[in-house]
């Protein structure tokens, strides 16, 4: 007796190890493009550049916006602009390739499938990054997706966006800027000294938390955790043994170098301003 064949509706599996790592410069660039968008545009879309690690992690390091027009049933991309920008980026960073595309707004919209189909022709299995530029509840909702095909037998019917792990790793100086970016309104951006002060205050707070934990363990107020103890030991061992006079000299030398750069940049701006005024006066005369 022959077995009857059945047609099964199924999703094509996506790479299980696929994840995304985004540099904060990409987030800043996307938010800047959103602020500078045309008045009639509701959202901004663009290309993500970076590389793919052997373990499947997509490292997003750069981006640029692509002009587009979209309605309820169609999307039009400026493909020539996209290719020209890609060619310019490859001249500066030849190792960066297209890894996906981004869009502003909360989650995936109806036209995202059409745009994702275009980028699927540019690179296999592109990543779709969404950024909620409204910063609802004081937090930036940043998500990464890949497309999973829905097929009926051998016939592909549609595609579904599946969320993948997202990692946004920042240095402490970058975190200060990102925290300012999350605020809906600020009086002014912090200067270098204010940013350093905020970083030092956060570092001191973390040191106080570690010191309190160690004291609680020593006084038997809490149970010790071997994994935390090893981490603290590794951190203490990684601190270079520098004498206080040598440390003060190192800090002072670095501060003097920064002040010298500020002084030179101020002189350069003054010279450029004088040269522009002299050039303008010469053309008038």
From TrEMBL:
A GO BP annotation: formation of cytoplasmic translation initiation complex
Reported function: Component of the eukaryotic translation initiation factor 3 (eIF-3) complex, which is involved in protein synthesis of a specialized repertoire of mRNAs and, together with other initiation factors, stimulates binding of mRNA and methionyl-tRNAi to the 40S ribosome. The eIF-3 complex specifically targets and initiates translation of a subset of mRNAs involved in cell proliferation.
SMART domains with a match to the protein in the record: JAB_MPN
Subunit structure: Component of the eukaryotic translation initiation factor 3 (eIF-3) complex.
Protein name: Eukaryotic translation initiation factor 3 subunit F
GO cellular component, one term: eukaryotic 43S preinitiation complex
CDD domains recorded: MPN_eIF3f (cd08064)
Keyword terms: Cytoplasm, Initiation factor, Protein biosynthesis
MPN domain mapped to chain residues: 20-151
Entries under Pfam families matching the protein: JAB, MitMem_reg
Keyword Amino-acid biosynthesis included in the entry's annotation: no
Source organism of the structure: Actinidia chinensis var. chinensis
Subcellular location field: Cytoplasm
Chief place where the protein resides: cytoplasm
Entry similarity comment: Belongs to the eIF-3 subunit F family.
């Amino acid at each position: 007796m022959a077995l009857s064949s059945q047609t099964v509706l199924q999703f094509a599996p996506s790479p299980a190890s696929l994840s995304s790592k985004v540099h904060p410069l990409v987030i800043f660039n996307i938010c800047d493009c959103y602020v500078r968008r045309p008045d009639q545009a509701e959202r901004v879309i663009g290309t993500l550049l970076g590389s793919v690690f052997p373990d499947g992690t997509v490292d997003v390091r750069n981006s640029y916006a692509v002009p587009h027009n979209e309605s309820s049933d169609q999307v039009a991309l400026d493909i020539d602009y996209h290719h020209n920008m890609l060619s310019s980026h490859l001249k500066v960073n030849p190792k960066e390739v297209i890894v996906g595309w981004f869009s502003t707004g909360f989650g995936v919209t109806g036209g995202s499938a059409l745009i994702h189909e275009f980028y699927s022709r540019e690179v296999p299995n592109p990543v779709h990054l969404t950024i909620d530029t409204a910063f609802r509840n004081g937090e930036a909702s940043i998500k990464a997706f890949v497309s999973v095909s829905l097929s009926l037998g051998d016939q592909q019917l549609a595609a579904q966006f599946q969320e993948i792990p997202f990692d946004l790793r920042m240095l402490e100086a970058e975190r200060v800027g990102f925290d300012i970016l999350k605020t809906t309104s600020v009086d002014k951006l912090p200067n270098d000294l204010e940013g350093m002060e905020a970083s030092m205050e956060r570092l001191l707070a973390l040191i106080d938390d570690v010191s309190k934990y160690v004291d609680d363990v020593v006084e038997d107020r809490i149970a010790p955790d071997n994994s935390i103890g090893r981490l603290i030991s590794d951190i203490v061992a990684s601190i270079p043994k520098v004498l206080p006079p040598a440390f003060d000299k190192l800090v002072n030398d670095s501060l003097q170098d920064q002040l010298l750069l500020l002084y030179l940049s101020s002189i350069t701006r003054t010279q450029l301003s004088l040269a522009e005024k002299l050039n303008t006066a010469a053309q008038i005369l």
